[in-house]
Specification:
- A seven-stranded mixed β-sheet has the order 1-7-6-5-4-2-3, with helices on both faces. Strands 10-11-15-12 form a four-stranded antiparallel β-sheet, covered by helices on one side.
- Among the domains are: 247 residues, Type I PLP-dependent aspartate aminotransferase-like (Major domain) (Aspartate Aminotransferase, domain 2), CATH 3.40.640.10; 66 residues, no CATH class.
- The relative contact order is 0.12.
- By secondary structure, it is of the alpha/beta class.
- It is built from 15 helices and 15 strands.
- Helix content is 42%, strand content 14%.
- The structure holds pyridoxal-5'-phosphate.
- The site of pyridoxal-5'-phosphate has 12 residues, from helix 4.
- Pfam families: Pyridoxal_deC.
- InterPro entries: GrpII_AminoAcid_Decarb, PyrdxlP-dep_de-COase, PyrdxlP-dep_Trfase, PyrdxlP-dep_Trfase_major, PyrdxlP-dep_Trfase_small.
- This is Aspartate aminotransferase family protein.
- One of its GO terms (biological process) is carboxylic acid metabolic process.
Length: 488
């Protein structure tokens, strides 16, 4: 047939569009992407995805290859994360958020079945748990109980968990590690206090569970996976350290009945029988095939080798930060994530604000991720930080990166951190929820120089200061307006 445009022309346009993106390979972007730095793996992943392109994961009986791929991935995750444990089953999902949502759905429905109640159970998380659990409570209508973490270690405290348990609690979440600070929650102690009350624990290993098994010192560390009694479910994303393209995660459960409560089936319509393990109906198999192919190629020894590269790079970056006056690594992270904050123990003129530091690093070509500071429910503060996600490719650029981080710190040392303009914050506090219309929000964004539809090319420090200072509902609504206008 005659095309309106030639494929070459269309693909050239795609290249042009992609040119505006942050660099996805080469180690200059320290979040979002997980680059193994191995070209053959990328090629294998695309070839495998191409073979799965026409499939529909909706019906594994029509396409048994889908069941076979998912069975292999669940089997691999079980052998790594539930070694020797009986009755562990699971599903492949589209990503970490879906795995977390489904773990909460299963827990909610298990709680309702066990208690005979139909009202809302409670989800207990630490303040550092991934936002996917806030979303889960929101979508699935659970009460959310957010516990403060230890402000020094950023770890959830088992005694706080024990005090938060009552008959309404359907699930407690522990992170291995947490995304913001890379802190490893004490899973076995948490599971112990929960088991005493009959409350299940979900281990959020979305980011960490595919590196910690191979991380140096793994054998000496206490168990944190499904081998710990009381851990009922565990999530692990293959589109992070499984080096698959986005769209694949694994969710494991102890016990078939708990797993089955994640499913949805209905025969109450005149169409085909709907029997879905996950949220979507028709769904892509491309990232699943790609993740499967990558895991087959690497095997445990390949993951171990790549994890070794990450660990060496992470250790080197930690040394750089430790040696940089005015900055410090938050807590004692275990795994590939680092959060960097101001060192408050040096005189003011020697301090480095982590967001100004990230902006200065960006000017040098390195994209770090600023994270806002937060006051916890017990009044303690989690400082503003800048986050680094270390991947295998980081090791190949770690010298260059370390030099840039030092230069960036030298550039902004002594410059005070950004603060939201006081008059703006005062005005924002007066905004009534019913006034948060699209038009008003766009006007408010314009007041602080964020023109509706504009991008984020400038410094991030001021924007983060706004997020820190605004009341949550206002900040959240403004964030939505900003991104929605950008997408428009
Ligand atoms: C990334 C992540 C998630 C959410 O995963 P998505 O794949 O982005 O949906 C959940 N928990 C942790 C700890 C994560 O790092």
């Amino acid at each position: 047939m005659d095309f309106e445009r030639t494929p070459a022309d269309i693909l050239a346009q795609l290249d042009e569009l992609r040119a505006a993106d942050a660099p996805t390979a080469g180690g200059h972007l320290l979040s979002y992407v997980y680059d193994p730095g191995v070209a053959e793996l990328d090629d294998l992943a695309s070839a495998a995805a191409r073979k799965a392109q026409p499939l529909n994961g909706l019906d594994p009986t029509t396409f048994p290859s889908v069941a076979a791929l998912e069975r292999d991935l669940v089997g691999l995750a079980r052998s790594v994360l539930a070694d020797g444990v009986d009755g562990v089953v699971g599903s492949v999902t589209s990503g970490g958020t879906e795995s977390c949502l489904l773990a909460v759905k299963s827990a909610r429905d298990s709680w309702r079945a066990a208690t005979g109640r139909e009202d809302r159970p409670t989800l207990v998380i630490g303040s550092t748990a991934h936002a996917a659990f806030i979303k889960a409570a929101h979508y699935l209508d659970l009460h959310l109980r957010v516990l403060p973490v230890d402000p020094d270690t950023c770890r959830l405290r088992p005694e706080d968990v024990a005090a938060a348990l009552d008959e309404t609690v359907a699930l407690v979440v522990a992170s291995t590690p947490s995304y913001p600070h890379g802190a490893l929650d004490p899973v076995s102690e948490i599971a112990e206090v929960c088991a005493a009350q009959g409350v299940p624990v979900h281990v959020d290993g979305c980011i960490g569970a595919w590196v910690l098994p191979w991380w140096p010192g793994a054998a000496e560390r206490p168990d944190w996976d499904l081998r710990v009694p009381g851990v009922a479910s565990l999530s692990v994303d293959l589109h992070k350290y499984g080096y698959a393209p986005k769209g694949v995660s694994v969710l494991l459960y102890r016990g078939r009945d708990r797993h089955r409560r994640q499913w949805f089936a209905t025969s109450a319509w005149p169409g085909y029988a709907v029997v879905n393990p996950t949220i979507l109906g028709s769904r892509t198999v491309m990232p699943i095939a790609a993740g499967w192919a990558v895991s087959q190629a690497l095997g445990r020894s390949g993951f171990e080798e790549l994890t070794g590269q990450i660990a060496r790079a992470a250790q080197q970056l930690r040394k750089v930060v430790d040696a940089t006056e005015g900055l410090r690594v938050v807590g004692d992270p275990v795994g590939p994530l680092l959060a960097v904050a101001t060192d408050p123990d040096v005189p003011e003129q020697c301090r480095v604000d982590p967001h100004r530091w990230a902006d200065a690093a960006k000017d040098l070509g390195w994209v770090l991720q600023p994270q806002p500071g937060r006051r916890q429910s017990d009044g303690t503060e989690l400082p503003r930080t800048t986050h680094l996600t270390v991947t295998p490719v980081t090791e190949s650029v770690v010298g260059e990166l370390g030099d840039a981080l030092v230069t960036a710190a030298d550039t902004v040392r002594g410059v005070p951190g950004a603060q939201a303009p006081a008059d703006f914050v005062a005005a924002a506090r007066q905004i009534r929820p019913e006034d948060l219309t699209s038009e008003n929000c766009a006007a408010v964004l314009g007041m602080v120089g964020l023109e509706p539809g504009g991008g984020l090319d400038g410094p991030m420090a001021e924007l983060l200061a706004l997020i820190e200072a605004l009341p949550e509902p206002v900040a959240e609504r403004l964030l939505i307006e900003f991104l929605a206008r950008f997408m428009e």
